[in-house]
Automatic annotation (TrEMBL):
Alphabetic keyword roster: Membrane, Transmembrane, Transmembrane helix
Record-linked SMART domains: HATPase_c
Lineage, top ranks: Bacteria, Pseudomonadati, Pseudomonadota, Gammaproteobacteria, Oceanospirillales
Segments forming a coiled coil: none
PROSITE patterns: HIS_KIN
Organism of origin: Oceanospirillum multiglobuliferum
Enzyme class: transferase
Name listed for the protein in its UniProt record: histidine kinase
Statement: the UniProt record of this protein carries the keyword NADP: no
Transmembrane segments: 18-36, 56-77
Amino acid sequence: MSSQTEHPVSGLSNRKQFIIAVGVFIFLSVVLIEIETFETVYEFSRTHEDWELDELIMAALSALITSAFTFAFNAYYQAQALKKEMTYRLKLERELAHAQKIQSLGTLAGGVAHSANNYLQPIMTLSRLAQKQLPSDSPLQPFMEKILLAANNAHNVLGELLRFSRQEPLAETEVYDLQKELDQHQLLYRAALSMQSKLSFDLTDQPCPVALSSSQIADITLALITNAEDSYNSQGGVIQVRLEQKGKMALLSVTDQGSGIAAHQIERLFEPFYTTKAVGEGTGLGLSIVHGLVQGVGGHVEVSSELDKGTTFSLHIPLAL
């Protein structure tokens, strides 16, 4: 994130600005009293009573006081207007920087997706050939199916990245059963974790049709479980994946008992490129992608966490009924 220089006026609170203006007025009043200005004026007016100076002086003092207060409030409101203008300008600058970063990401993603697809094609082709040459009852057949499934999911994700980089409309998403996808791909998810981590599934028996593709469901689940594993700081631990149906929503939650997340960090978790991990250990895109996919189908993500006790990500996804 590029640093922004805050305007000096924006650092002053409304109360401070008003106190400064009133303080100047009180200071001037005290000075006038200390030098006996009012007594001098009174004696002078008594000496020249025929000039009707009382009325003139009272009018002048009234005008002076009114002008002072007018100046104070005018300065206050001008400072307020300037503060709002600077805040609005800083907001626009941040939004512009964010848009430029996303545009650069799209260009980079297009190049990466194109190159990765070239490497992926022989993996898919050779895996299909190997699967055909194996006997149908070979114990390696289930593993070959998982390899092909992972390769196809990667191919679909890369295709979406290419369409995004070219600003083409994304392919229409079919409806998939979230319960079935999670249940069938448990082996794939367990293979993504280290030996020290234990993945537990608690899935409803009811079908949960959602407007997410199979590869998108895999992206969401893998991002959440790998993020949960990272919270154990390479020590490994239990990660629970739970799916239940609540009314017209599917509730997918991933819970760990790791290091937890500080409250001020939770607010920024879904920002692109934001990460709480050390340099070189994370891109800050996984949770941003999860948030974008869930929000894209009308859902939302909730995070509850406590330091040194664990974190739960709860995804509320509308059912495609």
